[in-house]
Amino acid sequence: MSKDNSAETKKKRRRRWGDRAEGRRLRTLSPMSRVAVYIMPNRTGALNYIRDTIDVSEIEKYIKQKKAEGLRNFNFMHIIVGAYVRCVSQMPALNRFIAGREVFARNNIEVALTIKKEMTLESPDTVIKIDVPADATSDDVYRILSDEIENYRNDPGGSFDKTAKILSKMPGLVMAFAMRLIRFADYFGWLPRKLTKLSPFHASMFITSMGSLGIPTIFHHLYDLGNCPVFISFGAKERKLQVNAEGQIEKKETIDFTVTMDERICDGYYFARALKKMRFILRDPWQLESPPEEVFEDID
Prior knowledge:
24% strand, 9 helices
């Protein structure tokens, strides 16, 4: 891995044959990584699942601090998005995706989020998508997400909802044909960047909060459409009995979260290290106060 600001890296990032609008094809993968996309051609057959629990005592202190600084809507969502982006900045293979049975490094870190328009049973879900720089701090994540939510409120329906509404008005056979056409174009990388920027199914990571609904987390599926390789879901805050470092049992406030991952983007050891890194950040969220010392670029 090389530093993002090196002249050699900038030269490599020029678009070459086989690259796509949203990412560049990786040409120096191990033979196993190259073969894996043919052994497991479908995303649903390449999924791994993991559940973890985080002690939120330090997170609660950090959220209280950020709210005192004026970030009144700051919450766990901003921290977990910031932690994942920080992991990507240090371990860029997390930001790969599979398309056309090739492995690509995504050019941007794009996060899709499911939100309810209003907290009522009748209110439908909607999806927003943010582009987060690799060197983002927690304040940057808060600003970017807040701006996107504000834009959605100023433009009710949003671009994604408007596109879905157009598709929903098509007769069933026409919609099925349109979706087959989209999948075909996506396989060969022919979808325009304007469309993949809009699509929540073309993202680095999809995240949803079950906690905002007051229920436990779930293992969420990955979508067959698009190329999003990671889905994170987290639940409501709970009180659990845990054994501390002195061997004593104490009651802790915790949050469970789950990760569904396309294992073809990186090997298990790499992803395990990434999860340990993420846990390390969540235990000490003050690390997100400043940008990383360096941002690493994926292999060629």
